[in-house]
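Known limitations

Structure tokens in this collection are predictions and should be treated as such. Users comparing against experimental data should check residue numbering before alignment. To illustrate the layout, the record for N-acyl homoserine lactonase family protein is reproduced below. The input appears on top and the generated tokens appear beneath it.
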Amino acid sequence: MKRVLMLIMVLAAISCKETKKENQENPVVEEVAKPEIKLYAFDGGTVMANNLNLFAQGDTYKGESKELSDAFFVIVHPKGTLLWDTGLPEMLVGNDPYTTPDGSFTISRKDSTLQQLKSIGLDSSNVDIIAFSHIHFDHTGGANHFPNAKWLIQQTEEDFINSDAIKGNSFYAPDSFSKLKNKKILNGDYDVFGDGTVVIKYYPGHTAGHQTLFLDLPNEGPTMLSGDIYHFEANRENGIVPQFNYDIPESEASIKAFEEFVKEKNAKVYIQHDKGNFDSMPKSPNYLN
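Generated tokens:
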């Protein structure tokens, strides 16, 4: 009987060693649940591009016009709330559409940033962080409502703001973001909440510090908000760079890097100015997650 018991104990010890060895060779990897993130899309106005050819080199879109959306977004993360862009100037709300003196653009806006945030129960105090894809006037229109938010801005964009190049340039309205003082200066990509789910990607060229926003949503998966690396689908299909970009060669390099990253992540891209893309997104109080 003793021999039988000893044999059982030896076999059990061998079995435990084999199991431990197998576990070491093939460790069980537990999936970490993604944080609950919500992406809300809002209407920051409409841009009628009366001279669409401005969005290309040469005569690609000569004689064409196109209606563009002007979206802004809120990303609600367990660690904070990020406002991405703020739309066209709010002086347009309640007024007739405005056409630029050269006739190139007609712009309009129906509702303010704060009024729309109310639809999801937020006010200015609930926005912890603000970031613009870039500081063209059609993205900074409602910025001054959020003076206490931390502003994430690229060093190159900050340098441009403080240069003579911005003076008198009709694409910029520095007064629209003059109340934002709490700046965090970035030098390239930035993981906003430190977990890889909300990441600013630095793709300069459209402006000196242009950036896009990558989201890893729990259900929708990898998602990219384009900023103005493109303005509409045909731009992306042909890799076309607007003639008014800050730096054309830099824009071309950023487009290449952007597409490589999108392919690597298998991300769905939402072109912010493309009306079809914007219309396909759920509107508040509905959201993507």
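For this record: Helices lie at 2-25, 113-117, 155-161, 233-238, 248-265, 275-279. The first helix runs from residue 2 to 25. Please report discrepancies through the issue tracker.
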